[in-house]
Each structure stands twice: as structure tokens, then as C-alpha cells.
Design brief:
The chain has 64 residues and is α+β, with helices and mostly antiparallel strands. It is built from three helices and two strands, in the order E-H-H-E-H.
């Protein structure tokens, strides 16, 4: 299997569609490179990717 680039929204829709309303659009539009593709991504790995992406967007957000 080759690497595949997907939006975070694709991962969320596959494994955790109920989380969609709680994620910001810029988080959902994040591009994620999957080493072995979306087809064999497991649920635990999907959650880890989602958590990491949220943390990355929070760390780059300006403080108010």
C-alpha cells in the first residue's frame, strides 16, 4: 500500500462521525499523510491522529 493524503474530516467521518460538530473547520481541513492508507487505519490510530491534530491547532492559536 502506498502513502495516502487525506483530510482529517475523512478520518473523523469513517470512525467518529459524531465528533464532526465539535471540530473546527480548519481542523477538519488538516491534511494527514497516512503511511498505509485510509483503508487499513485502525480506530485507535484514528483517535490518536484526531487528538494530535487538535493539539497542533490549539498550540498555534493566538492567546487572547
Amino acid at each position: 500500500m502506498e502513502m495516502e493524503t487525506v483530510k482529517l474530516s475523512q478520518i473523523v467521518m469513517k470512525w467518529f462521525p459524531d465528533m464532526m460538530p465539535f471540530l473546527k473547520q480548519n481542523e477538519l481541513n488538516s491534511l494527514i499523510v497516512l503511511r498505509d492508507g485510509l483503508g487499513i487505519l485502525e480506530q485507535e490510530d484514528a483517535m490518536e491522529i484526531i487528538q494530535y491534530s487538535i493539539c497542533e491547532h490549539q498550540s498555534s492559536a493566538p492567546l487572547q
